[in-house]
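User: Hello, can you help with two protein structures?

Assistant: Certainly.
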Amino acid sequence: MGCEASYNGKQATRSAEKMDKDNELFILWTNADVLTSEKMVMMYATNSLLKNWWGAVTVIIWGATAKLAAENALIQDKLKIAQEAGVQFTACKACADQLGVTEKLEGMGIEVKYWGQPLTEILKENKKLITI
């Protein structure tokens, strides 16, 4: 009986880990079009958490979107609403540095880090990722 309970505990842990992985969404945001950013990225990320479509949502800011997020007031407002809903934002450090917006993004509560290896891990582990 003790052995069975131990096995079930491990099985439950594995199921919870799988469920967490299956309930986590990453959005790779590369399209700096304002309408696409507002009406797809921000709207979907925010509603995904407010309506419990996903348990966790992380938006990866990559390329020109770093500059858009740092400079566009409308996108900043939408980003803040998404953050308040629980959406996590993180930005590619190489891109942010090259575009001169690292400090601005960090001041907005956005994590800035190198994303090449973590993105590769997301892909290799078949995590849920959409690219916009």
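That covers the first. Now for the second protein you mentioned:
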Amino acid sequence: MSTKEDARCRVLGLRGASARAGGQMTVELAVVFPVLLVVAVVAVNALLFFSECAGFDRVARDAVRVHATSPAYGQGLEQSRALVAATIEQAFDRPFVDARVAVEGAKGGCVRFTATLEFSPTLFGMGMRSSVLGVALPHLEHSVSMTVDPYKPGVLL
């Protein structure tokens, strides 16, 4: 160190290694902070996705049980699918999730409803982002299926 730096460190109460350590910690913080920020964003989005999946499973299965297992007179599969989709959309009215429902026939007159949740990453609620500091945040999907036998009241087999 030069004489000027020694004098400045003495005025500040720092000596030798202590003066250099303060600058080193600032540089280390500048290097580590972006990494910590990316880890925090990924962790928050992962927890938010898991939370949405848990609620989605419950709501999707309940909607299928309510609207598809005992359809109204004259109600077809497409109307049942639309009612299930509307119930799910109403429960998940958030800007970072999107839901869709598909229906297909299965063996023995049973019908399979498949609901899919599409999750878009968010930056602590500040909108959708596709990357944070160069790290890509992918869109995630979660699906749940339920096979039911749509009972037709008043129909004799």
